[in-house]
Every structure is written in structure tokens, then in C-alpha cells.
């Protein structure tokens, strides 16, 4: 799975930020700190796309606080159970392909409930936009899309594949530590075999944005919440058949990549993965689902 979907539109940002900041949070020194302040980060990010009124900011903040309370009390225990199991499997030596695939499925299983719970946040925000705000959103999404294309599409397929390999190595090393020569070769070969994955991903992203903008024209109709939920929960379908096929193939390929990298590693590789899982698990174990007033006072 290529994790460069970091600039998804405002409707999905609450979902991704809470999940990524809390679960993966590898760019932050403290998972607990990132989790507690993720709500403010969401508001700042949304304002990069749309200039919100004071009332919209307050409603968004309240909705996100409710989402975070649910996520902290209901979902974090599931993350801990998964990390416990991952740690246990890693201590037994390099996991086989079936075990790697199992843990990948466990990770993907966290998303459906989060998507469902976050949908009302998106409904409340997007249905409150006025025409000028929708136009602003359209302009900023188009600009963001162009920036993404400029960043991820190089001058040649070979250069694009190399850039993908560099990104993959950086993300993998957060979990496995520094890669050895064989592991780097595996990543290079894997990236070269991804074909037009980056182009398909970018086109799928644009397809979703266009579908959102079309739906926003009907944001005051009674069916808007239901249609927006479909857009969020079934985003892969909305992004198009090429995207759906790419994601299906990519998930299998990613599981194969992780399996190959673990087998090509050594005890230090397994120790780093176990340590990373333990670090996250300890953060989740000690994370208190604090009240809003306590967060605001920190």
C-alpha cells in the first residue's frame, strides 16, 4: 500500500489524521502527544482548503472531540490487541507469508468503523459550506492535485519508479530499521514492477475530488448525507475501476514485499519491528482519553 495519500480532501482528513497520527505516528516523537492534539491539526489543515466561519470551526471542533472520545475508548483497545499479537509473532522468528497477510488484514480492518463514525463530521462540515467556500475548496483541491502530480510524477517512468522506491524505503525503515543491501534490492525491484501505480493513484484521487464537488452542488438535499457516506466508505469504487484493480494488486504486493524484507533481514530487523510495535503499544496503554477541558489546558 502506497501511503502517500496524505493530502486527501478535507472530507476525509479527520479520518486519516486521527488514524495515522494515533496508529502510525512515526514522524512524531510522542504518539500520545500526537493523538491528543490531532483534533487541532485537523482544523488547521481544513483551513488550508476552506476559510471557515467561527461557527463552523466550533462545530467541527466539537464533532472531532466526540469522534476522538469514541476512537480512544472503542478503537485503541483493538490496536493494542493487534500489536500484542504482532509482537508475539515476531518473537518466534521471521513470519511466513500467511502471517504477514493476516496482520495486513488486521490493519485494514480498523478502517471501516472509523469511516462510519467520521462520516457525520464530514456531513456537518460540508453541508454548512456556502457557494464561495465550495468554490474555494475546488480551487485549492485543483492546486493540491497539481502539486501532487509535480511531486510524484518524474520526467520518466524510471525516475518515477525510483522516487517510489525512495519513499518506500523511508517508510519501511521506520518499522524495520536500516535496510541491508539485499533488502534495498528487493525494494528497488518491487517499485520497478508497480507499473503505472502512481499515475493511477493520482487519477483516482482526481476522480474522487470531482465526485465530491459534484455532490456538493446538492449538499442541501435530504439525500446528501447518504450519498456522502457512500463517497467516503466506498471511495475506491468512486475512484474508478483502474484504481480498484490497482489497490487489490497493491495490497497483495505489499504483503509480499514485507514478507520478503523480513526474510532478507536478520535478528536486528525483527528486534526493530518488535521494538516499534512495543513502543506504540506502550503509548496506547498509557494514553488517557482525557476530557476536552484538560486538552485545552495543556
Description:
- The protein has 298 residues and is an all-alpha fold.
- Helix 4 (54-90) packs across helix 14 (267-286).
- The protein has 15 helices and no strands.
- It is globular.
- The two termini are 36 Å apart.
- It has helices spanning 13-24, 31-36, 38-49, 54-90, 97-108, 111-127, 131-152, 157-176, 181-192, 197-216, 224-233, 235-238, 241-264, 267-286, 292-297.
- It has one domain.
Please describe the topology of this protein.
Layout: H1 13-24, H2 31-36, H3 38-49, H4 54-90, H5 97-108, H6 111-127, H7 131-152, H8 157-176, H9 181-192, H10 197-216, H11 224-233, H12 235-238, H13 241-264, H14 267-286, H15 292-297
How many helices? The count is: 15
Shape: globular
Largest sheet: none
Helicity level: over 70%
Strand percentage, roughly?
under 5%
Low-confidence stretches: 1-31, 290-298
Give the radius of gyration: 20 Å
Mean pLDDT: 79
What would a concise description of this structure say?
With 298 residues, this protein is mostly helical.
Keywords, separated by commas or semicolons:
disordered N terminus, disordered C terminus, globular, 298 residues, single chain, mainly alpha
Amino acid at each position: 500500500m502506497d501511503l502517500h495519500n496524505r493530502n486527501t480532501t478535507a472530507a476525509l482528513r479527520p479520518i486519516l489524521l486521527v488514524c495515522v497520527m494515533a496508529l502510525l505516528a512515526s514522524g512524531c516523537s510522542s504518539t500520545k502527544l500526537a493523538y491528543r492534539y490531532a483534533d487541532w491539526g485537523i482544523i488547521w489543515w481544513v483551513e488550508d482548503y476552506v476559510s471557515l466561519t467561527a461557527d463552523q470551526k466550533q462545530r467541527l471542533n466539537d464533532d472531532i472531540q466526540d469522534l476522538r472520545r469514541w476512537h480512544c475508548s472503542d478503537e485503541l483497545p483493538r490496536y493494542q490487541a493487534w500489536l500484542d499479537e504482532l509482537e508475539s509473532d515476531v518473537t518466534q522468528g521471521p513470519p511466513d507469508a500467511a502471517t504477514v497477510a493476516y496482520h495486513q488484514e488486521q490493519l485494514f480492518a480498523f478502517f471501516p468503523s472509523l469511516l462510519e463514525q467520521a462520516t457525520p463530521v464530514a456531513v456537518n462540515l460540508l453541508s454548512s459550506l456556502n457557494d464561495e467556500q465550495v468554490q474555494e475548496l475546488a480551487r485549492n483541491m485543483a492546486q493540491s492535485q497539481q502539486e501532487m502530480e509535480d511531486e510524484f510524477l518524474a520526467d520518466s517512468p524510471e525516475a518515477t519508479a525510483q522516487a517510489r522506491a525512495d519513499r518506500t524505503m523511508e517508510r519501511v525503515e521506520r518499522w524495520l530499521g536500516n535496510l541491508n543491501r539485499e533488502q534495498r534490492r528487493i525494494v528497488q525491484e518491487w517499485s520497478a514492477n508497480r507499473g503505472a501505480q502512481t499515475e493511477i493513484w493520482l487519477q483516482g484521487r482526481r476522480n474522487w475530488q470531482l465526485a465530491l464537488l459534484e455532490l456538493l452542488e446538492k449538499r442541501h438535499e435530504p439525500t446528501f448525507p447518504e450519498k456522502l457516506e457512500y463517497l467516503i466508505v466506498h471511495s475506491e469504487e468512486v475512484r474508478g475501476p483502474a484504481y480498484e484493480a490497482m489497490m487489490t494488486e497493491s495490497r497483495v504486493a505489499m504483503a509480499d514485499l514485507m514478507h520478503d524484507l523480513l526474510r532478507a533481514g536478520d535478528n536486528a530487523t525483527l528486534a526493530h519491528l518488535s521494538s516499534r510495535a512495543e513502543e506504540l503499544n506502550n503509548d496506547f496503554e498509557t494514553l488517557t482519553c482525557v476530557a476536552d477541558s484538560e486538552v485545552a489546558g495543556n
